[in-house]
Amino acid sequence: MTEIHELSARALAGAIRSGETTPQEVLAHTLERAERLGPGVGAFARLTPDLARRQADDAAARLADGDPAPLLGVPLPIKDLTMVAGVEMTAGSAAMRGFVPEVDDGVVTRLREAGTVMLGKTSTPELGLPPYTEPDIGPPARSPWDPTRSAGGSSGGAAAAVAAGIVPVAHGSDGGGSIRIPAAACGLVGLKPSRGRISTGPYGVDGAALATHGVLTRDVRDTALALDVLAQGWPGDDRVLPPPAAGSFLAAADADVAPLRVGVLTTPIITPDAPVHAEALAAVERAVGLLAAMGHEVTEVPPPFPAEKWLPFLDVWSVMAASAPLPPEVEPLLVPLTRWMRERGRGVAGVTYADAIAAGQRLQREAAQTWAGVDVVLSPTLAQPAPRIGEMRDDDDPEADFWAQCAFTPWTSTWNILGAPAISLPLHHAPAEQGGPVLPWGVMLGARTGREDLLLGLAAALEAAAPWPLVPGSGVS
């Protein structure tokens, strides 16, 4: 059998089901790699070996009983912004130390029902705010392709764990790009589902409805299978999207995609003057060539709205930061970026916040009109390679830090505002500078709300046409 850590989640589940290996053997192999490789890439906030062993034993018992769970015995860590009962959740912050949830978040329940084994919590920046993962309470999350560079954020630890070949799939969440950014930085597949596709229930609420759960994987079909697992609702949901016509998202990834109209956008949306690296543009050019060869119609499209119309969302994100339920006495423990955003958010008037939410709804309609002539929009995922550790974080000027983040990620947050799905694929690999290590460069495909099936089918076709390396060429082993 291929090495356990080289298998996709689907193949690993199949090997367990066929008796080639056992959940306990898989866990032992995975924990060894997590303990050996995890610290070097800053993947984990904490490992939970005792809980994982109990869950592996449970998976073995379920297997013996003929349980058809699709991911039985597959190790899958949870991002440390999400509750796991009995496991400390610090959310990347010294201010959160000692918080131990009493319940599992709904997505944790769904993943357990699917048979996964939770071996730990992955690292995240404080409250998941920036697109780099450099928490004060743990090591920074590093890209296994170049450990001097960030793994991205806020699902940076999750991406590092998958890219380093520790696990085949990891839970993440995305409120402005936080799945797609680390996917691009670490050479992975990262899908932000549509608003409402994955329920926040039974304990969470939608709030501004910018964020969603998801996963990071090394291949498209693992992403599709995980979406099938997670896209089950909870009582009280008020956004219910139709299921894929193919019957499942995994089936949609296997389906042929009819010729599409693909719009190409390389102009930054929210920071029009932000420089775009030549290799980010080369990644789009490669995607264009592949799509044209498949018979899709490719044309250029403009940004969906003027950049200044995005500005109200600084108010939304600031209020989201200010809404984190932290007592006043822990405020000094927060990093400068968080304190700046919370202070700004506390100054946003109620009417101003309401206007910002309404502005987002107007942008949904404006983007639908601007892009009415295309089925899918293609852009770079990121404007530049992942920053080197410490390069973007600016504790002396957190506002400058924020705007540097926007220049780095000028396309991703638009899809959160629109509530529409978008996926990052590692289609291109090249050094960022002469003589430097080869890095992955992501391209992003976005579609209309509810059309994850279309994105997954197109992404799977691109993966078949131009397979990407499953682990970094630098040889993490």
Major sheet characteristics: 8 strands, mixed
Low-confidence parts lasting 5 or more residues at pLDDT below 50?
A: 473-477
- SSE string, helix = H, strand = E? HHEHEHEEEHEHEEHHEHEHHHEHHEEH
CATH topology: Amidase signature (AS) enzymes
The computed structural class is alpha+beta
- Strand percentage lies at 5-15%
Cα distance spanning the termini:
17 Å
Count of DSSP-assigned helices: 15
**What is the CATH architecture annotation?**
Alpha-Beta Complex
How many strand units? 13
Q: What layout of secondary structure does this protein have?
A:
Layout: H1 9-18, H2 23-41, E1 44-47, H3 49-64, E2 78-79, H4 106-113, E3 120-122, E4 142-143, E5 146-150, H5 156-163, E6 169-174, H6 180-186, E7 189-192, E8 212-217, H7 220-230, H8 249-254, E9 261-264, H9 278-293, E10 297-300, H10 312-322, H11 336-346, H12 350-370, E11 376-380, H13 398-408, H14 412-418, E12 422-431, E13 438-447, H15 452-465
Parallel strand pairs: 2-3, 9-10, 9-11
Antiparallel strand pairs: 1-3, 4-5, 6-8, 7-8, 7-12, 11-13, 12-13
Describe the structure.
The structure is a single chain. With 477 residues, the chain is α+β, with helices and mostly antiparallel strands. The chain has a single domain (4-257, 383-465), classed as Amidase signature (AS) domain (Amidase signature (AS) enzymes, Alpha-Beta Complex). It has 15 helices and 13 strands. It has helices at residues 9-18, 23-41, 49-64, 106-113, 156-163, 180-186, 220-230, 249-254, 278-293, 312-322, 336-346, 350-370, 398-408, 412-418, 452-465; strands at residues 44-47, 78-79, 120-122, 142-143, 146-150, 169-174, 189-192, 212-217, 261-264, 297-300, 376-380, 422-431, 438-447. The strands form three sheets. An eight-stranded mixed beta sheet has the order 6-8-7-12-13-11-9-10, with helices on both faces. Strand 9 (261-264), helix 9 (278-293) and strand 10 (297-300) form a beta-alpha-beta unit. Helix 7 packs antiparallel against helix 15 and helix 10 packs across helix 12. The protein is globular, with a radius of gyration of 21 Å.
